Amino acid sequence: MSDDRRAEVGAPDAEISDVESLICADLDRHQKAKRRHFVPALLLMVLSAASMFLVAGIRPDLLDQPAWVLAIHAALWALCLVALPAIGVGLWFPPRWQRVGLVLLAVVLTAYTTLGLASADANFSFSIDHCGVIVLAYGAALLGLGVVSGAFAQRRRSAASYWIAGGVSLTTLQTLTFQCPKTGMAHIVWNHLGGAIVLMTLAGAVGVWAHRRRQKLAA
User: In sequence order, what are the residues at sequence separation of 6 or more whose Cβ sits closer than 8 angstroms to the Cβ of residue 193?
Assistant: First the structure.
């Protein structure tokens, strides 16, 4: 085969290789940009929770729990601060079965950490107190951080916003669980879990709105 013929045959392969290199470089650039947004937002969420602990303290009975209980709390912190938001912004792409497993794990761990120290109420009544307000107010602040940072618009599908909404809501709930010394079941169900469910619903709606708005502006 002549040199000209070899060049003609090899040209398409070279062009494909160049295109693949450009695509990989573009994907790497997008991932680096997402990490530049994700890491500062993560640090702000951690610092905000730490500030809440410094101001209001940590409930003493929680620190008296066995090491395996504290490990469960640590796992839930990792889920709400890192795993769920990382999926939402497109830094982590686990297969479907892993995503389902993460959701189920988050639900189980949340139920255990929130209700694990609960006890029956002497006077069973549902009422909103300062804990319910804290959940909504602190969660709204974290939600605003997500909107301003553009976290809800990092992926093409607006459904990804629900991963970030879940991370925000669980972070808020975990922060309150570490602080509130009340163990009444009605208080925890109504103000802690109930507030977190309301927050997650609102956060999901705001996230979808922010995603669609950013997509329209980019179009």
Answer: 114, 173
The one-character DSSP state at 119 is B
Domain residue spans of the chain:
36-218
CB distance 139 to 168 below 8 Å: yes
Tokens of 154: 């990092």
> What Rg, from alpha-carbon coordinates, does the chain have?
23
Q: What is the pLDDT of residues 151-191, one digit of tens each?
A: 666 666 667 778 888 888 899 899 888 888 887 888 888 88
Of the candidates 76, 71, 51, the residue with the CA atom closest to the CA atom of residue 196? 76
- pLDDT for residue 122 is more than 70: no
* 8 Å CB contact between 77 and 174: yes
pTM for the structure as a whole: 0.77
- 140, 198 Cβ separation under 8 angstroms: no
Cα–Cα distance measured from residue 214 to residue 200, given in angstroms and rounded to the nearest whole number:
21
The full DSSP string for 47-92 is: HHHHHHHHHH---HHHHTS-HHHHHHHHHHHHIIIIIHHHHHHTS-
Asked whether residue 124 carries a pLDDT value surpassing 50, the answer given is: no
